[in-house]
Amino acid sequence: MKLVTAEQMREMDRQAIEDYGIEGLVLMENAGRGAAAVLQRRYAERYPGPLLILCGKGNNGGDGYVMARHLQAWGWQVRLLALAAPQRLRGAAGHNAAIASRCGLPLLVAEDEAALTRLLQQQNDCRLLVDAIFGNGMTAPARGHYRQALRWLNASGVPVFAVDMPSGIDATSGAVLEEAVRADCSASFACAKIGQVSMPAAAYGGALEVVDIGMPAVLQAAVPARLCLVEAADAQALLPRRTSDSHKGVCGHSLLLAGMSGTCGAARLCAEGALRGGSGLVTLAAPAIAQAQLTALAAEVMTFTVPASKDWEPFDGDQLSGLLAGKNAVAVGPGIGWTPASGLLLKRLLGCCHVPLVVDADGLNVLSQRPELLQGSRPAALVLTPHPGEMARLTGLTVAQIQQDRCGVASAFARRHQLVLVLKGARTVIAAADGRVWLNGTGNAGMASGGMGDVLTGLVAALLAQGLAPFEAAVLAVYLHGAAADLCATTGAVGYGAMAVARALPQARQNLQTAGIPRPEGGS
Ligand SMILES: NC(=O)C1=CN([C@@H]2O[C@H](COP(=O)(O)OP(=O)(O)OC[C@H]3O[C@@H](n4cnc5c(N)ncnc54)[C@H](O)[C@@H]3O)[C@@H](O)[C@H]2O)[C@H](O)CC1
Ligand SMILES: [K+]
Prior knowledge:
The chain is α/β, with parallel strands linked by helices. It folds into two domains: 3-223, 3-Layer(aba) Sandwich (Rossmann fold); 234-240 and 248-511, Ribokinase (UDP-N-acetylmuramoyl-L-alanine:D-glutamate ligase, 3-Layer(aba) Sandwich). The protein has helices at 6-18, 24-43, 59-73, 91-102, 113-120, 144-155, 194-197, 202-205, 217-221, 232-236, 264-276, 288-291, 317-324, 340-352, 362-369, 388-395, 399-404, 406-417, 452-465, 470-489, 498-514; strands at 3-4, 51-55, 78-82, 107-109, 128-132, 160-163, 185-189, 192-193, 207-211, 227-230, 253-257, 281-287, 302-306, 329-332, 357-359, 382-384, 420-423, 429-431, 437-440. The strands form three sheets. Strands 10-19-18-17-16-15-14-11-12-13 form a ten-stranded mixed sheet. Strands 4-3-2-5-6-7-9 form a seven-stranded parallel sheet, with helices on both faces. Strand 14 (329-332), helix 14 and strand 15 form a beta-alpha-beta unit. Helix 11 (264-276) crosses helix 19 (452-465). It starts with a strand and ends in a 10-residue tail after the last helix. Ligand LP7C6HRI binds next to helix 1, helix 2 and helix 3.
């Protein structure tokens, strides 16, 4: 599903009105009525009691007035609480506030904290609340009685329905502007905004529904697919196809450089990810000291012993080049340590690897200490898979700064260093050097456990080895990884572990392959 920024949404709105002659009032009518219909469908049976709509001073408030009129006509007991006097509202919003008043809808006005405190005390009987305070136009944290209203909504203990998006989120970055409403459901208009889908804001919006407001199809089609929420159809289109005469020689050979004494589990999980991800052949290179601990490795995985007395040293350039021969993709990092020896390994590998390379975990920590390695000679296709902590080390930003603008930070890094950046976490971001930023929709909170990233690293390598381009391999890997975890979570939401996710990958791939997904017109 394509996503838009707040700016793109405003521009679409402007073009619909100015270039296509669709009145702003018509768009607002469609928006308000559409949102009311979503509310009616989702809540009519459960919450038939009084409903309070809090309206702000802009068009989001205007949508609230339209909703009030329709919901009243459908039998709801509706009250309006205006945080800005209706006569102050301009354009379509002012027009709809006046209509609501003429329709006799009960309207309270609170333009300061004292008035709001007094009026809110009379609303304890409300069974459902509607947040029509701020939408796409929110640019700064709410203050004064606006902030008070946001806090009251959150403390109410009553479900909140958000018009367009919860008040208090930045529609482009997904940042929470200090205080945001926690909604049970959001009805977005025309398109989903990236900030509604990206963390942390996505956790505030509840169930997301996109309402058709009559935006011309040509305007929607003109939005580039630069920002996207990866859904099953997107992932399915990327699956590498096999024919009945496929053999291991055409399904790629992945080389994994992972593990050392004490961290062999990371190597095993990475190898399992590559194997279950469909790599025709998998070779795991690990130091001699680690080999004894790798006996539990899947029998299908070949091993190479790094001729070292101690972890990864010495592993010279010629030996490395020999190891790379015949491989189609390489992954490096899980459990290799954050040592001068692993630094040397990274330097040599970046210099002599001519196939796509995935760097994860300790490999990323090495890069954060030696950023010059990204400037020098390196493979054309590079995929980095940091979690927010590793991203903080790579960029010098704090984790909080990264989490406030996950897409922006990931995209800037991918563009600057001309690589694919996978920023892990809920709603993993996959950013390409050309500006594409896709967000993943699969996965669950049970994935917050050690070893998940190691499986993903092996899986990305496997898909690269099967011939996918780096961005596509990263997108599909992240999708399948989350889908496999979702399968695991069906029998226990927490504690299934990373190995179980690796072993569920074939089923996740099969499910995706056979899913009957409606294709857009012209699709294959
Ligand atoms: N997408 C569409 O085509 C349509 C969207 N609609 C609705 O319109 C809003 C966006 O409306 P807008 O008037 O631009 O902004 P808001 O209502 O979100 O904000 C109101 C107002 O408040 C100002 N403001 C921003 N931040 C703050 C702050 N922290 N404190 C005080 N005031 C603030 C801002 O400058 C605005 O002027 C969209 O979400 C939809 O709900 C149309 O109804 C249909 C077409
Ligand atoms: K809102």
